[in-house]
Design a protein that fits this description.
By secondary structure, the protein is α+β, with helices and mostly antiparallel strands. Helices cover 34% and strands 20% of the residues. It has helices at residues 16-29, 99-105, 126-132, 134-145, 159-172, 183-189, 192-203, 217-227, 260-273, 334-353, 389-399, 422-428, 450-454, 466-489; strands at residues 54-57, 88-90, 113-115, 151-154, 212-214, 233-237, 247-251, 282-286, 291-293, 295-301, 308-318, 323-329, 358-367, 375-382, 407-413, 443-446, 456-462. The strands form three sheets. Strands 9, 10, 11, 12, 13, 14, 15, 16 and 17 form a nine-stranded antiparallel β-sheet that branches. The longest helix is centred in the C-terminal third of the chain and has 24 residues, at 466-489. It starts with 15 loop residues before the first helix and ends with a helix.
């Protein structure tokens, strides 16, 4: 079964008035026509992690990826980190020689199988590949029939994941539950425009960033004109992207003196680069300055029982678009932590009332000189697994509690790293690799396909304190990699 240890770190107190407000809004939202089609999936909705073997499948095709970053199959490796005994991990690529042995030996992860269907036409729709490849689908159907596959545990409840469940259920003659929200609810939860509207209705407009939704080129240009006098930079966000990859940041002086035709022409080119198409509502508004930090609240929403706030992390972002590159546990005051946890719990309860099940997180921005005195805004919902929740859950598996050791998780990109392979890194850092057999070691490597595809690797580093872990990841680790790269080039 998929191993999802949930460790609660925040016990929130909410009032009856707050719960009633959640219930009223849930009743209103449940009448949204978009959710009507989800009723047919109710028999396939898993309430909790399955007791038997599952298919761990990180299909990201429902998340908009800019054309320049369309190859994302390397991210599918992360499904291995939640796989348990007898589970199957579906991928399109190859994590590389030595990764499975590393997961079993050093991380102590139970044995699992790998399923590699033929790559689909679009290059990244993993769920569709599982039914388009007749051999892969036949294997899955037989596994369901024989009890070797009892449920699907996906990255998110995308329409194609649910379609795979329906097809397998029909082929095998038994239900194959999905541990994720049904498709329409899943798409709604991951939509930044819908999320801003929901937060505003639940907490008030002061809890969301100032922005205007627009779904046409003319509408986006008009919104840009409106907000230009109010900020030095404008932000345009796609509603269904991830990790900051669907963000566009523009200096106002680049726009304000252009004619309407010239402005639309430039926006058309820039929006194409981030994957926008007409009819998709983007958010247009000021790009905040003086940002103290960007927290993320990690939740588990069970089928039964209250939502669980597992942790609050501070995200590390790079570049003017705010691309996610890592995170660390937050060290906020109890008052600030409780404020974020309580409001996140209320949102989680709202989602649960609508039928949401599984992993969820909420990203925020705190604007001001420091986090404790700054102003809090909710930015987006990640109605799926992600770059913080996946390693957080792995650490719960390894340590019993992810907060047992100070740690940092980060993506390290380095020119020339793509000339190496995972076993090169494992050999170099062998004395420092965390080993579950001894409990010693400070380095955990994951998502190894990133080495070849992005010349990078994802790393968790622990230390006696956060500063030690941070110093290692920011200097010692990349410097060691750089020496390894150059030593390899001289041979």
């Amino acid at each position: 079964m998929a191993n999802v240890p949930v460790v609660e770190h925040f016990q929130v107190a909410v009032s009856s008035d707050q719960l009633q407000r959640v219930d009223r809004l849930a009743d209103e939202l449940s009448r949204d026509p978009r959710f009507e089609g989800d009723q047919r999936f109710q028999p396939l909705l898993a309430k909790d992690p399955a007791a038997g073997p599952v298919l761990c499948i990180d299909d990201m095709s429902a998340i908009r990826i800019p054309p320049r970053l369309e190859e994302v199959s390397f991210v599918m490796d992360r499904a291995r980190l939640r796989a348990g005994s007898g589970d199957t991990v579906a991928v399109l690529g190859d994590p590389g020689e030595g990764y499975e042995e590393y997961c079993r030996t050093y991380l102590g992860l139970e044995s699992c199988s790998w399923l590699r269907p033929r790559r689909p036409e679009d290059g990244r729709n993993l769920a569709r590949a599982c039914w388009q490849d007749s051999e892969a689908f036949a294997w899955l159907a037989q596994a369901v029939e024989t009890g070797q596959l009892t449920a699907i545990h996906p990255y998110m409840g995308s329409p194609d994941v649910w379609e795979l469940s329906v097809r397998l259920s029909r082929a095998a003659g038994r239900f194959v539950p999905v541990l994720a929200p049904p498709p329409a609810l899943s798409l709604w939860a991951n939509n930044k425009v819908d999320f801003a509207s929901t937060v505003s209705r639940l907490f008030g407009e002061e809890w969301i960033l100032p922005a205007s939704p627009a779904s046409s080129l003319a509408g986006i240009a008009s919104a840009a004109r409106f907000w230009a006098p109010r900020s030095r930079r404008l932000g345009i966000k796609l509603p269904d992207s991830a990790g900051g990859r669907g963000n566009l940041v523009l200096p106002v002086d680049r726009l304000e003196w252009r004619s309407d035709d010239a402005l639309r022409k430039e926006l058309r080119s820039l929006l194409h680069d981030i994957g926008w198409r007409a009819g998709v509502a983007a958010l247009v508004g000021p790009w905040l300055k003086d940002v103290a930090c960007t927290p993320s609240a990690q939740l588990w929403i069970p089928g039964e029982g209250p939502p669980v706030v597992e942790g609050i992390y501070v995200q590390m972002l790079k570049g003017e678009f705010g691309e996610f590159v890592g995170s660390r546990p937050a060290d906020f005051s109890p008052a600030l932590s409780n404020e974020i946890a309580q409001r996140s719990w209320l949102l989680g309860r709202l989602y649960q009332r609508l039928g949401y099940v599984g992993r969820c997180s909420f990203d925020l921005i705190i604007q001001g000189r420091d986090a404790e005195s700054g102003r809090i805004f909710f930015v987006e919902c990640n109605g799926r697994w992600g770059g913080t929740s996946i390693p957080m859950t792995l650490l719960n598996r390894l340590w019993g509690d992810c907060l047992r050791r100070p740690h940092l998780l980060r993506t390290v990109d380095l020119e020339g790293l793509d000339r190496l392979r995972l076993h090169d890194l494992l050999d170099r850092f062998k004395p420092e690799l965390f080993d579950v057999r001894t409990g010693r070691g400070r380095v955990i490597l994951f998502n190894p396909s990133r080495i070849k595809e992005r010349s990078g690797i994802e790393v968790i580093a622990s230390g006696r304190d956060l500063r030690e872990a941070q110093d290692f990841l920011e200097s010692e680790f990349p410097e060691s990699l750089d020496r390894l790269i150059h030593r390899g080039l001289t041979h």
